[in-house]
């Protein structure tokens, strides 16, 4: 004897719970792929940002103007000045002043700035690139957080749906067991009644045979 198992549908809304579980799993796999792509993009952006910062640092070092050759002269030979007599020190200082004065006319104010402008735009461009990379990295991090939040929500929904399906399945199994137990009990009762009926029929047949024998004896 076969028994029918009820369909695995939600008793309240009527939707197919197993199909919903498969849809949730597919959504979770898609979100996991998005998170992985965002992580890769964030790593690439961080690497580009680090390379740009190194480039800007190098450009800054190249853009710094070199110091004039006469700058370290006052402290170039302190020990030699201590060993010279006062007259020689005075003559040496006057000679240095004369040399420094002779160099001043050749260093016009327009000479120094003329060498700086070509190197200034490159650091500014580097700063703009870094700012753009930082904005891109921030957007990718925000997208990754949003994707991770959706993934966590999908996991929670999947767990809740799985728990609900297990509860419904257990309830249906319990109902099926009860129905089967009742059916088996009814079958047992019908079989017992059938046995009783057969026993009665056998007794009636034996009684009829006795009656026939008595009739023959009397007749």
Would you kindly provide a written description of the structure presented here, covering whatever features stand out?
The structure is a single chain. This protein is mainly alpha-helical and 219 residues long. The protein has a domain at 17-62 and 120-218. It is 79% helix and 0% strand. The protein is built from 5 helices and no strands. The protein has helices at 17-63, 78-83, 86-103, 111-114, 121-218.
Task: Give the SSE layout.
Elements: H1 17-63, H2 78-83, H3 86-103, H4 111-114, H5 121-218
Structure summarized in a few sentences:
Helices cover 79% and strands 0% of the residues. By secondary structure, the chain is mainly α. It has a domain at 17-62 and 120-218.
Number of helical regions: 5
What is the CA-atom radius of gyration, in angstroms? 51 Å
Give the overall pLDDT as a whole number: 72
**Major β-sheet profile:** none
Overall 3D geometry? rod-shaped
Strand content: under 5%
Low-confidence stretches: 1-8, 67-83, 103-121
The secondary-structure class comes to mainly alpha
Please tally the β strands and state the result. 0
Secondary structure: helix percent: over 70%
State the distance separating the first and last CA atoms.
53 Å
Run of helices and strands: HHHHH
């Amino acid at each position: 004897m076969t028994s029918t198992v009820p369909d695995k549908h939600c008793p309240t809304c009527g939707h197919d719970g197993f199909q919903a579980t498969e849809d949730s799993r597919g959504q979770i796999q898609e979100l996991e792929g998005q998170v992985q792509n965002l992580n890769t993009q964030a790593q690439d952006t961080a690497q580009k940002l680090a390379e740009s910062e190194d480039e800007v640092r190098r450009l800054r070092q190249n853009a710094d103007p070199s110091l004039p050759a006469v700058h370290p002269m006052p402290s170039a030979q302190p020990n030699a000045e201590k060993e010279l007599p006062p007259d020689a020190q005075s003559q040496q200082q006057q000679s240095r002043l004369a040399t420094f004065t002779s160099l001043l006319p050749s260093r016009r104010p327009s000479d120094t700035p003329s060498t700086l402008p070509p190197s200034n735009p490159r650091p500014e461009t580097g700063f703009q690139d870094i700012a753009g990379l930082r904005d891109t990295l921030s957007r990718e991090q925000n997208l990754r957080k949003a994707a991770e939040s959706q993934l966590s929500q999908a996991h929670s929904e999947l767990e809740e749906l799985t728990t609900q399906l297990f509860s419904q399945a257990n309830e249906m199994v319990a109902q099926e067991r009860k129905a089967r137990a009742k059916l088996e009990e009814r079958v047992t009762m019908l079989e017992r009644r059938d046995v009783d009926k057969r026993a009665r029929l056998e007794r009636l047949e034996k009684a009829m045979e006795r009656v026939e024998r008595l009739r023959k004896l009397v007749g």
